[in-house]
């Protein structure tokens, strides 16, 4: 029942996937309408980003009620229908869990704000008196500015993300009991697992000590030992439901710290950003792959692979944009899908979408707002998908999309890419089909081949699949074998720059 060990999980950023009711925001009924597409694409599972009741200060990562659906996305009955129909299409469904913080609209935070310093209501969060007229310590928010906001009674509350996302206090038993209730609530409804948001951040060191200067010591905001107790509790609940999976977003201090998150009684899968952070250079890509194997060595967890998510500029843009960016992203898709372990795709990656350079006045990400737009934020990778037709809705919505879809995405439509055998979507479909059905994809380790400078080649150990990547600037001979798939045209029988090939 360990279906997740080599699963391809498709991240649906619900807000940007498909809108069923014309309000310009994607919703659960929209996801349901596209299950046929997802089955055709050939992924194994979905990860739905938060669809819970929320004022949407961080587009749903600010949860006001973790056991209900926000009306903009649907309702619980719609969720149940989506889940049943996804299962009927052979798709597992995992959902985001956001235990680290709530929304300021959560009933607990509203009660805390209205209660006195020292009250039990405030004990569920981190409230402190200030220090010398300023915040209680020097911690910064991940989104910019201090990690503390002051209330009118002069107490400050902690928020490692936006001021609309107060951090919960994980020394408080009520906070634990509530998460346990939430986990059971969704497992009872039949979800196949969770992606735990900021799984490295729940616990805070005693006394909330100041952060040292950058690079001087470990960051006290994250990866505190206490997080492991919380994850063990979640895992213990999940273990009562066979076949379900706990995946966590993890930023650990080092490999040894990472490995602790995927011990036998914690997460099944830890998400790492190594491949996503590697530049398009064979040596860096190889280091990222070896590092990801290293991080799970000696643990029961498979390695995991991600090239894109809703927090990061899309690969086409990261690798230089334009035709070269697309060619490189296609090449990296073959590298990623050749690897043993769990793969996490992000919606739109299969269409070769770039980031969109949006004007400041339409940007909505708090990271952009809180830095006065000096940080462009993450909206560029969150633009809704172009399905068919033309502007403004492109089949995403009958209304106006919440972020504008650029006119030139008319040449990246799902409808057209499905028909075009040379499209990025066709490449992903073919790669996913081979990954599922070709016997060469057995084996859980890699063997590296010698390769010319700027290139890499590996084989799945004990099996036949070979993947070769050329990030250099000259065409190189291919390793021996029958060609299964190439990410772009070959140069005679040479592998050109910005191209990858699968051979067996
Ligand atoms: C994680 C999510 C990100 C969100 C943040 C706060 O990093 O991936 O999108 O803004 O947590 O919940």
What does this entry show, briefly?
The protein has 504 residues and is α/β, with parallel strands linked by helices. The protein has 14 helices and 20 strands.
Question: Whole-Å distance between the termini?
Answer: 28 Å
Mean pLDDT: 97
Helical fraction: 25-40%
Q: Which homologous superfamily in CATH is the superfamily of the largest domain?
A: Glycosidases
- Ligands (ions, cofactors included): alpha-D-glucopyranose
- Structural class, judged by helices and strands? alpha/beta
Number of helices: 14
Give an overview in words.
It is a single chain. This protein is an alpha/beta fold and 504 residues long. The chain has 3 domains: 3-103 and 191-429, TIM Barrel (Alpha-Beta Barrel); 107-158, Alpha-Beta Complex (Oligo-1,6-glucosidase, domain 2), CATH 3.90.400.10; 443-503, Sandwich (Immunoglobulin-like). It is 27% helix and 16% strand. It is built from 14 helices and 20 strands. The protein has an 8-stranded parallel sheet. The protein has a 5-stranded antiparallel sheet with strand order 14-15-16-20-18, with helices on one face. A 3-stranded antiparallel sheet has the order 6-8-7, with no helix packed on it. It is globular. The relative contact order is 0.10. Residues 58, 61, 98, 161, 197-198, 249, 310-311 line the site of alpha-D-glucopyranose.
